[in-house]
């Protein structure tokens, strides 16, 4: 089982990069999926390590994307798939956000959040996700279906599908994070 991150806050300036382990090379399917998801979650933390609020708000034109927006977006993605779709339970701040006024609310509102607030929001979402996945695996494995149907297909989504999608989501956005971080201070690599 993948556990919650207990390393010092990597959003605080001057913190060391959080530990990140290579996903296991020989384990079962759930262990492989969780290993890759944890690896990509921690890669995001590497990309924001040591940055202050101004750096988290910096854009790389013409894109409006920021690292702070990415952190908040991925907190939303965690809660969307594991709380809203899997459990059919609304979670704040997403449930009361005015999505009609701003479809990109998580991205734009991140500029008003401190690094500590962004990290706390992301940590809480990841912790909820980890508890949800652990309970789901204990109750029946990867083939179970979500309580809420997928908005496009109208069908239940398997836990396997959600985990694969989460790996894809983080991997894609970590590519964005690579470019944003390099534009901020020249840092490259993993």
From TrEMBL:
Matches recorded under Pfam families: MST
Stretches the record annotates as Disordered: 1-28
Protein name: Mini-circle protein
Listed InterPro entries: DinB/YfiT-like, MST-like
SUPFAM superfamilies: DinB/YfiT-like putative metalloenzymes (SSF109854)
Basic and acidic residues composition-biased segments: 17-28
